[in-house]
Amino acid sequence: MSKFVKFLIGLFLLPLSVAALPTLSRVLRASGEVTPVWVALVAGMACWVVVFLLLPKPMWVYVFGHELTHALWTWAFGGRVKKFKVTAKGGHVIITKTNFFISLAPYFFPLYAVCVAVFFLIGDLIWNWHRYQWVFHFLLGAAYAFHVTLTLFILRTRQSDITDHGWFFSIVVIWLGNFGTLLLALPILIGQPSLGDALSWWLIETGQLVQRVGRVF
Q1: 3-state secondary structure of 5
Q2: Helix (H, G, I), strand (E, B) or coil at 133
Q3: Nearest-5° angle of CA 17, CA 19, CA 24?
Q4: Which neighbouring-strand residues pair with 84?
Q5: pTM summary value
Q6: Strand pairing of 81-87 and 90-95?
Q7: Residue 84 belongs to what H/E stretch?
Q8: Residues 90/63, Cβ–Cβ less than 8 Å
Q9: Helix or strand or coil: residue 92?
Q10: Of 31, 104, 135, 187, which has the maximum CB count within 10 A?
């Protein structure tokens, strides 16, 4: 697929991307005062931000997660990983299949946050960790903040994953992926609003945005 075609796809997805922001705001307002969950999540995020700003950045950990995400998505699409290399200065994987999902997944798929969620889910099923939910929410907040801060940090430099597919298309996909993850995860995590409501609001916001733009032209 040429970069021009991807650019056109990016334009087509742009209303959905822009509408994700007011939709997320609506989901946050509808989540209500779930104080224990939000306190733990925000505390985890804040703690990581302090670490990020004041201490050396754990680039090896980030690069490992970045390359592992490439590998996981390659396997998900039926490809094979032939080589996997990680250093604090960078890494790479040699794979037998690629597409824009595989290339851009590390920028929108919060691997370590997913690992925290899976680990806690398994632990809760086996050992009934319900009373430790605040720990889960704290670690989840920290892991998601890790994803956001270090992704933004590395995006300051040229990334071949992005330039290979075109900046505009890549940024739209990354934006959609990150906001889509939040719009899917928050209703499940908080319990309100429902996932169906969140997705329907997203479609409604997108439709209203398209109508407003259409009236301008």
Answers
A1: helix
A2: helix
A3: 100
A4: 93
A5: 0.93
A6: antiparallel
A7: strand 81-87
A8: yes
A9: strand
A10: 104
Structure-block tokens of residue 138: 């704290």
Q: Could you tell me which residues are beta bridge partners of residue 136?
A: none
Find the range with the poorest average confidence among 89-93, 99-103, 138-142, 208-212: 89-93
Give residue 202's pLDDT band: very low, low, confident or very high (50, 70, 90).
very high
- Return the ∠ at Cα 127 (arms to 122 and 129), rounded to 5°: 80
Q: Which residue has the tokens 């940024």?
A: 171
pLDDT band at 106 (very low <50, low <70, confident <90, very high): very high
Query: Do residues 127 and 26 lie in contact, with contact meaning Cβ atoms separated by under 8 Å?
Result: no
Q: Is residue 155 within 8 Å of residue 149, measured between CB atoms?
A: no
For helices 100-108 and 167-190, the axis angle rounded to 10 degrees is 50
Structure tokens at 16: 């959905």
CA dihedral 117, 199, 66, 97 (to 10 degrees): 120
Q: Which residue has the tokens 């733009």?
A: 213
Q: How far apart are the first and last CA of the chain?
A: 30
Measured distance CA(37)–CA(110) in Å, rounded: 19
Over residues 191-204, the mean pLDDT reads 93
Number of H helices, E strands in the chain: 9, 2
pLDDT digit string, tens, across residues 3-58: 899 999 999 999 999 999 999 999 999 887 767 889 999 999 999 999 999 999 99
